[in-house]
Design a protein that fits this description.
With 217 residues, the chain is of the alpha+beta class. Helix content is 40%, strand content 32%. A hairpin with a 5-residue loop joins strand 6 and strand 7. Helix 6 packs across helix 7 and helix 6 packs across helix 8. Keywords: Transcription, Transcription regulation.
C-alpha cells in the first residue's frame, strides 16, 4: 500500500464551504483539524473537528449558519466539535466519490492558511490517479506534498521528510548530534552523509520545524 499526501487549496479564498470561509476569516477562532468526516445517507455531512480560541465566538457562528443542522462541543480553549451540516455540491461530490473509491483517508486532516487542508490518502497508484481526475472538476487546487510506501507505524512528520532529510536525520542520530550532552557537530553529520555543513544545517532546521510543529499540535 502507498500513501499520497496532498494540500487542497480552495479556488475561492477562505474554504470549501461558506461556513468554512466564515470560520477561516474569524481571527478569534483557529480551525485545527478534522478527525472524522462522513457523507450521510440523507446527503448531510457529519464531522468531528478540532478547534481552539474563542469557543463562544465559534458557537455564535455555528448557531447562525443556515447550513448547520446541529452541533455539540466539548472543551474550552481547545475543543472538539461534532456537527451535521448541508454541504455544497462540490463538497458532496468529493465525499461521494471518496465513499465509492478504493482509497482510505488518514486522519487527522490538518488545516492550513486560507482554509487549505493537508490530506493523506492510502491506496494504490490507480486510486491516486482517480484523485487527480476528480480534482479537475472540483472547487480546489491539488498540490502534491509527499508520496511513498505506507508504514502504519510511522508518524506523519517522518513520512513528510524527503529521502535526503531522512538520511540526514538518521545520520544525526547515529553520530550523537541529538544526545545530551551533544556528542557531534553539524560538520560530523555532514561528513557522515557527504554533504556540505551548510546544507546539513538547512536540512536539520527543516526537519526540526516539522517535528516541533507536530509536537505543538
Amino acid at each position: 500500500m502507498r500513501y499520497l499526501t496532498v494540500r487542497l487549496v480552495p479556488t475561492e479564498s477562505g474554504g470549501f464551504h461558506p461556513l468554512g470561509q466564515q470560520l477561516s476569516a474569524e481571527s478569534a477562532v483557529r480551525r485545527e483539524a478534522i478527525h472524522h468526516v462522513e457523507l450521510l445517507d440523507d446527503g448531510t455531512v457529519l464531522t468531528l473537528a478540532e478547534g481552539s480560541g474563542d469557543r463562544e465566538r465559534y458557537e455564535t457562528i455555528m448557531a447562525a449558519s443556515p447550513s448547520v443542522h446541529r452541533y455539540m462541543l466539548s472543551g474550552e480553549e481547545r475543543w472538539m466539535a461534532v456537527s451535521q451540516f448541508e454541504p455544497t455540491e462540490p463538497v458532496r461530490r468529493i465525499l461521494a466519490w471518496q465513499r465509492r473509491a478504493d482509497v482510505v483517508v488518514e486522519t487527522p486532516i490538518r488545516f492550513g492558511d486560507g482554509g487549505s487542508q493537508t490530506v493523506t490518502f492510502l491506496g494504490d497508484d490507480s486510486a491516486f490517479r482517480a484523485i487527480f481526475d476528480a480534482a479537475e472538476t472540483a472547487a480546489f487546487d491539488l498540490e502534491v506534498v509527499q508520496t511513498g510506501e505506507y508504514d502504519p507505524d510511522a508518524r506523519w512528520f517522518t513520512r513528510s521528510l524527503t529521502n535526503r532529510q531522512a538520511d540526514v536525520l538518521a545520520a544525526a542520530v547515529d553520530v550523537g548530534y541529538y544526545r545530551a550532552p551533544r556528542e557531534a557537530t553539524q560538520e560530523d553529520v555532514a561528513e557522515a552523509v557527504g554533504l556540505a555543513p551548510s546544507t546539513v544545517g538547512t536540512h536539520l532546521r527543516k526537519i526540526e520545524a516539522k517535528v516541533f510543529e507536530a509536537l505543538a499540535r
